[in-house]
Amino acid sequence: MTDQASYLFSTRTSKALAEKIATYYGQPLGKIKVQEFSDGEFEPVLDQSVRGGRVFLIGSTFPPADNLLELLLMIDASKRASAKSITVVLPYYGLARQDRKDQPRAPIGAKLVANLLTAAGATRVMTMDLHADQIQGFFEIPVDHLYASTIFIEYIQNLKLDNLTIASPDMGGAKRAKNYAGHLGAEVVICYKERKKANVVEEMFLIGDVKDRNVILIDDMIDTAGTLCKAADILIANGAKSVRAMATHGVLSGKAYENIEKSQISRVIVTDTIPVRTDLTAKIEVLSCAELFADVMKMVHEHRSISNKFII
């Protein structure tokens, strides 16, 4: 236990999730005011004292880049207000797909974000389902890497599906699919894809048997949903009885909603790390990660182990 005070603040675009987290945590969000200038510049100001306390700053860094900038300014404000520790809660870690130099003269955006957060004054980072686990190593401060499997596995078990198969939409997610299958006692198949350019799948092949199986596609994010929809087509063509999809981060850009609505996927389940519209298709279901983050934040604040919150 600790006598140190804790304070919760949120960026503007993550306020809906932050309010849920605050409710589970047991205290209201801190007061913050944002001054906006006519040229688009903005200045977030903490409207209460945080001196000597533990500050939790909640904000997903999905586009536009202003979301990341707002979070960085809030970190700086907290540091200059003499907060003892600053924990940045990033339900969705933006630029995580830029985790390596995969072509000449390319940036490593995920490392740059880590540098910016640390330089601004963050003393700890809490996030969920990074696109690549090794991003944790980009930091010289503690990183609590949570997994949506803590939420999804219970959901899948409650479906009580027979002949369950877990599928990965690409080779990169094979380990994730195998871990889910191990907890659920299910089989695993993999969709092998080849791309010509980002967000466009050229060809896809299935590795494994799905005849008369109820298949759940598992991924860390859904962007345009092109890969998932093509994977569903392949699975159905190979005899799958039904196809559902689960992903932690519902980026859902471009024609994602339209693609999902027209696809052979019966249900798409995501978490609320990013605000998701559910009025554009009845196929999307949103599970909240608020309770998980609130529990881990409270454990961190009280200096308790969080190991029992990790399934995968």
UniProtKB/TrEMBL annotation:
Checking InterPro entries in the record gives: PRib_PP_synth_CS, Pribosyltran_N, PRTase-like, PRTase_dom, Rib-P_diPkinase
Per the record, the domain of life is: Bacteria
Would the keyword ATP-binding be found if you checked this record's keyword annotation? yes
Q: Which residues form a coiled coil?
A: none
Is Kinase tagged as a keyword? yes
Q: Which GO terms describe its cellular component?
A: cytoplasm; ribose phosphate diphosphokinase complex
Pfam families linked = Pribosyl_synth (PF14572), Pribosyltran_N (PF13793)
Per UniProt, residues of the Ribose-phosphate pyrophosphokinase N-terminal domain are 8-121
Per UniProt, the enzyme's principal EC class comes to transferase
Task: Tell me the Gene Ontology biological-process terms attached to this UniProt entry.
Answer: 5-phosphoribose 1-diphosphate biosynthetic process; purine nucleotide biosynthetic process; ribonucleoside monophosphate biosynthetic process
EC number(s) of the enzyme? 2.7.6.1
Among the GO molecular function terms of this UniProt record, one is: magnesium ion binding
Give the UniProt keywords, A-Z: ATP-binding, Kinase, Magnesium, Metal-binding, Nucleotide biosynthesis, Nucleotide-binding, Transferase
Q: Which reaction does it catalyse?
A: D-ribose 5-phosphate + ATP = 5-phospho-alpha-D-ribose 1-diphosphate + AMP + H(+)
- NCBIfam families referenced in this protein's UniProt entry, alphabetically: PRK01259.1, ribP_PPkin
Q: What is this protein called?
A: ribose-phosphate diphosphokinase
